[in-house]
Amino acid sequence: MASAMLEVGLPAPVDPPRVEDLRLPAARVRLPEAQAERLGASVDAGVRAAHTYGKAYRDVARALAGDVGAAPDVVLFPSDEAGVREALELCAERGFAAIPYGGGSSVTGGVEARGLRERFPGVVTIDLTRMARVLEIDRTSLAARVEAGILGPALEAALRREGLTLRHFPQSFEFSTLGGWLATRAAGHFATLETRIDEQTESLRLLTPAGPLETRRLPSSGAGPDPKRLVLGSEGAFGVITEAWIRVRPRPDARASADVFFADFLAGARAARAIAQAGLHPSNCRLLDPTEAMLSGACLDGRAVLLLAFEASGHDPAGLLARAIEIAREAGGEPGKTRTKASAGPSEKDGASERWKRLFLDAPYLRDHLARHGLIVETFETACTWDRLEGLVSEVARAVAEAARRECGRAVTGCRLTHVYPDGAAPYFTVVAPGRRGDEVRQWDAIKAASVEAILAAGGTVTHHHAVGRDHGAGYIAEQSTLFDEVLRNAKHSLDPRGVMNPGALLPLPPSPEGRP
Ligand SMILES: Cc1cc2nc3c(=O)[nH]c(=O)nc-3n(C[C@H](O)[C@H](O)[C@H](O)COP(=O)(O)OP(=O)(O)OC[C@H]3O[C@@H](n4cnc5c(N)ncnc54)[C@H](O)[C@@H]3O)c2cc1C
Asked: What's the pTM?
């Protein structure tokens, strides 16, 4: 569909390079045998290469080109908190940069040693995926204590055995971890209300080079600034999150959903706003513009589509859906068939939301496949208040289409609203453009720069949920006050006095004396 919309044929795919052909930089960190064994250290070429990047388009493009110059010197796989503590002590003592690594699904350079080999005598990636146990379940309070390295499917499988669920399903659910979600303040399943992992976090534990920082298990507290909020979103720059108490719930047993079609995106946005402001709290309220609807196969006739769903445990959400549909109809929408869980049969499988969901789950794999065929396929996202939405969406779409046409000759750009709030929404853009072999990363960087500039000028944030990482540092600083930047840097200095924790992520590195990045 993407290549048809671009009216270009796909060139033959390039194969990923073989590990034995990669030219990795020398591994500079040598550990005594016993310590290497204790920490699960690996200098294997495949392991180092696999931990060089996250999963953004520019990561895929560089990996396909065999560019692994920023590979870490060593990857540690601690299996308990004592191992993490020892790894942090090692890094602090010897001045090695330490990069916490969950599933490696960062799309903003969060796990990449960009510019670090030149500044640090060693770069150590700390992979948390061996710390993947559900440690305790408190059924009275409906909370679970879980190690940070657990991947989404393993966490849900463990909770399912207890009849429970976290219901945090980011698109990267399969290959991202609880610790990564907490460190990036990920947004998941719920399109309204509890959109982020923040709301599902009761307390967490962070190991820092200055010692452990553990927050209290409380449903809520009015005692001053919340320490939990310092750890959420810290992106490995303050320390390693080793475990957390998360809020779980019974599995929903009822669901009601419908697709509502609109002549254009803005009419759909008016409906989404009215639904968000009516206090109905649908679990799904995602609006696809005609291009996104077409790319995903949700609707092929040039209309926008609003995907609505409500889910509940122990009561019927059909009445809430009926009210949301009524609101959407008043805004000019044309509802399709209503589906309830009990009636879910073949017709549900054919609904726009089902087709969209299939593509949503397949998209990460499809993106990598298209990149092998030379297509630049990437997404970026923001959030703004409703009063700015129309201006932001049109300005960003214009700036990006212009940059993409300048760089690539042609491009398809689409927009959807992934999350909606009473006072605003999160627009999410997709760009597909033909890349030039060997020049794709520069082409994408030019398009991305145009998007960030347009987003900030139109009053949006540099990210709604993809995090800051190394790509959005300057934008993050630009949207904060100078005083907040200073407070954050002082907090980092207290927790990480030698500046070894994920340097350059969240807070940009100062320029090096030699002018290197
Ligand atoms: C196809 C695709 C779809 C995506 N969809 C979504 C989405 O729907 N919603 C969303 O929010 N994001 C999404 N993302 C972005 C990404 O998946 C999230 O940022 C996710 O939370 C990262 O988790 P991870 O375990 O992979 O972390 P990593 O990528 O390994 O790390 C991300 C950052 O967190 C730090 N970190 C990781 N673990 C820890 C820890 N235990 N302690 C301290 N710091 C740590 C790392 O140092 C890094 O800075 C998507 C990414 C891809 C590739």
From this structure: 0.95
